[in-house]
Specification:
The chain is mostly helical and 118 residues long. It has one domain: Orthogonal Bundle (Cytochrome Bc1 Complex, Chain D, domain 2), CATH 1.10.760. It has 6 helices and no strands. α3 runs antiparallel to α6. The radius of gyration is 18 Å and the shape is elongated. The chain starts with a helix and ends with a helix. The protein binds heme C. Heme C binds next to α2, α4, α5 and α6.
Length: 118
């Protein structure tokens, strides 16, 4: 009996640990994006509020990521040419941090906008 309880407690601890990690990172470390983005202040890149508005929902953004994040598919560049000269910066971020984590990255971006900070 005692042993069963201990196993149950250990399992709960491990599961709780996983859940906490998920909540912090959302499966994706969004902090990497902070150097150049904020939710509602332009930094090196556009505000994520503008990004969220332009894409509408995370599935649309995840699809553009999954399709290789081509410059001609990027909605902010399409809406405002001034970002085009900086596209290369975001392309290297994409290759380094987003590729392979397309859905998690899109989800993390929309969650950051909902919470009001990255
Ligand atoms: C070194 C600076 C830098 C970092 C770090 C960075 N970005 Fe960007 N990002 C930019 C710039 C500059 C643009 C504007 C150029 C563009 O739109 O491609 C941009 C644009 C974007 C866009 C809009 C693309 C469009 O035109 O529609 C998304 C989405 C995005 N970033 C997501 C992210 C995510 C997610 C991360 C973290 C993994 C990240 N960025 C990290 C510089 C950065």
């Amino acid at each position: 009996m005692k042993k069963t309880l201990m196993i149950a407690a250990a399992a709960a601890f491990v599961m709780g640990g996983f859940a906490a990690t998920e909540a912090v990172a959302g499966g994706f470390n969004v902090k990497k994006c902070k150097a150049c983005h904020a939710v509602d202040k332009k930094k090196v890149g556009p505000t994520w509020k503008d990004v969220a508005e332009a894409y509408g929902d995370e599935a649309t953004l995840a699809k553009v990521f999954a399709d290789g994040f081509k410059v001609e598919d990027r909605k902010l560049i399409a809406a405002n040419d001034k970002w085009k000269s900086k596209a290369g910066m975001m392309t290297s971020q994409y290759k380094k941090n987003i590729k392979g984590h397309e859905e998690a990255a899109a989800k993390a971006l929309f969650e950051a906008v909902a919470r009001g900070k990255i």
